[in-house]
Amino acid sequence: MPFFSQASVSTAAGDQVRQENLALAEGLKRQEAGLLDQLIVRYQHRLLRYLLYLTGSREMAEDLFQEVWMRVLVRGAQFNGKARFETWLFAIARNLVIDHRRKRTLASLEELMEGTGGDERPLPLEIAGIEPSSFDHAANLEDRERIAAALIGLEAIYREVMVLRFYEDMSLEEIATVTRTPLSTIKSRLYRGMAILKPRLERLQLRPVGAV
After folding, report:
1. Residue 46 and residue 139: Cα distance in Å, rounded?
2. CA quadruple 185, 190, 194, 197: dihedral sign
3. Could you tell me the residue range of the domain that residue 103 belongs to?
4. How many CB atoms lie within 10 A of CB 87?
5. Which of 70, 72, 124, 205 qualifies as a FRET site for 40, CA 20 to 30 Å off?
6. Exposed, middle or buried, 175 (CB in 10 Å: 0-12/13-18/19+)?
7. Is 151 part of any domain?
8. Any residues with CB less than 8 A from the CB of 202 and at least 6 apart, and which?
9. pTM for this model (two decimals)
């Protein structure tokens, strides 16, 4: 029986992902029939959850959800396959949220939680049950609902990083790409977000996010 090292398996998996991304890039460029529908089915739950956490409004998230896929349809040729598709997709979603907020005189996503007053309100706890992520599988339903509520209480710049890291399993480098933020800043936001969240979860008798 042949022996494969963990490194060789990881390299093979990485090569497969890159090939899939390149194939997807070609499909989007050619506007292959049915490809957009396949992508919507595959990513709809994750994308909607991300938009819900960013906007704090289900109605706004659902409206922007439609706009995101319109952007994918129109600008699909811009995806070159060098990064994962979800990294590109979430960057589009984030930019749309910022554009929407700018129309309401807010300058950037970082201002979402600054001086918004009544706009900061708990989301429906069903947000945590849109579709199980690897994070969700590690917690029961009650815990997921409490964690979702605790995350909503974080400032947007920390909440976004926490959601991308622990719900979407993105690397810090990918988060930096999505947010167009220096890697050092992403690390700082993640550390700060966990520091804020930890005592809240301990009060709820839950393990801190990311704990083993």
Report:
1. 18
2. positive
3. 15-203
4. 21
5. 124
6. buried
7. yes
8. 208
9. 0.72
